[in-house]
Amino acid sequence: MELAQIEAFISAAECGSFSRAAELLSVAQPSLSNRIQSLEREVGQPLFERMGRGVKLTDAGNSFLPYAQRVMRTLHDGVMVLAGTREGTAGRLLVGAAPAVGTYVLPRLLKVFCDQHEGVEVLVRTGHSDEVLQMVIDDDVQVGIGRPINHPDVRTVVLYRDELVLVVSSQHRYAKAGAVKVDDLADESLILFDRDSGYYGMILGLFRDLGVVPQQQMQLDSIEATKKMVEANLGIALLPEVSVEREIRLGTLHKVHIEAAETVEREIAVMYRRNKPQSGPMAAFLDLLSEIYGVKLPR
By CB atoms within 10 Å of each CB, which of 24, 55, 127, 272 scores lowest? Predict the structure, then answer.
């Protein structure tokens, strides 16, 4: 099996046409067709359904495609290393991030990184922390940042702790007081966000530990939507402190201390594959994280 066959297969799958794939690869269409036919003989079954004006993958082709793509990504990573990207002056950095990290933390990190490494192309994918871990395992990203989840093939190092804080609107009666008694929370309308995230369980766990059952006024799918509802004085919310720094500074939201409540924090970690050669951009990004958060990241 030759790489040219794999390349032809992936291009045809993405284009849905042998002719367009041939143009993309700058080869003659008969040559591309021969490569794919040779590959089909190698695997012992058809990978494409030939139609009048194009092609589409068979079930076997769909099953084979992600593995073929992984081969080409791995080859591309190797070529980048050989091309001298160890210095981090060129190449690509692929980062996966949990939603709160991707929205409120990663932009500041990447601003510093991009200013220092202008020739590096940066791509970001977001998902819940378990999805970010899977991206790292599948080599879809080089570095993931989210809730720490241990896996034998992945290094997981805690970078910082993100505190959940109670916020209210500037019109709320707790805004000036700056504190609230636990029992008073039972009368408040609580706005929850992102049921699939770890924060959801942490918030309900806090109220359970306090012995309070708040009224659940709304369940939203994002932190930004939750902040808007709180600003409109439609309820109160517990949100990651990093996500409300700007609104607190502007005075549209106020941080309120819950008396007799323990601080609720969530660890945020960087995750990356063990025993895998690191490209220059990846190594430079890990160096930046080490510098900013004061942690040692094993290579």
Answer: 24
